[in-house]
Amino acid sequence: MLKRPEASFRLSDFPTSGLVGLRITFAAYSSNITPAMENKTAIRAFLPLTFIFIISSSVFLVCRPLFTRWSTDTDVLIIGNIILFLATAISFYLYYKALLSKNAQVILRMVYGGILIKLVICLVAAFVYISIAGKGVSKGAIFGCLFLYFVYTYSEVAILMKMSKRSKHV
Predict the structure, then answer these.
(1) Cα separation of 22 and 66, whole Å?
(2) Do 93 and 43 meet the contact criterion of CB atoms below 8 Å apart?
(3) Which residues pair with 6 in a beta bridge?
(4) Which of 59, 66, 86, 87 is most exposed, with minimal Cβ within 10 Å?
């Protein structure tokens, strides 16, 4: 946890004017890991999911004629990919915060919250699409989004499992 900042005083060399130079430094945290380092770790761990998003979006854009021949709506795939990426980012953030916690209740709350948020976002997106499209629902696009859901979820869990092995808290 965060500790109250501690002040450390160091007297520097006496200047010729007779004034004492006083240097005050504050150590905001007692551990060697600063929040900036933790953020870099989280961002670095999230990069594979970003690459999955970029690659899958590129495939959907480049192979649009192929998906059209398979009667799969690429616009639905692209929008579904964006929604899944955002839902995964939110759940990854909650899971990562759970990894940093020492409290079991906080860990459970964050993990279940991440699962629930991702599930609700996907259900609302599917419901909105089905209600708007009516009978013109692209089953290929729905199964494509389901495949993307599994890819994102598997990658997210694999990354977090590697991180939890290195973590001292979980």
Answers:
(1) 71
(2) no
(3) 27
(4) 66
Of 167, 2, 1, 3, nearest to 96 (Cα)? Answer: 167
14: phi then psi, degrees, rounded to nearest 5: -70, 125
Asked if 141 and 73 touch (Cβ cutoff 8 Å), the reply is yes
Q: Residue 77: CB partners within 8 Å, gap ≥ 6?
A: 60, 67, 141, 144, 145, 148
The closest of 160, 7, 27, 147 to 77, measured between CA atoms, is: 147
pTM of the model: 0.74
Identity of the residue numbered 57 = S
What band does 15 get if pLDDT is binned at 50, 70 and 90? very low
Would you place residue 166 in the very low, low, confident or very high pLDDT band (cuts 50, 70, 90)?
confident
Structure tokens at 2: 């965060």
Whose CA is closest to 83, among 107, 45, 65, 56?
A: 56
**What pLDDT is recorded for position 119?**
92
pLDDT band at 37 (very low <50, low <70, confident <90, very high): low
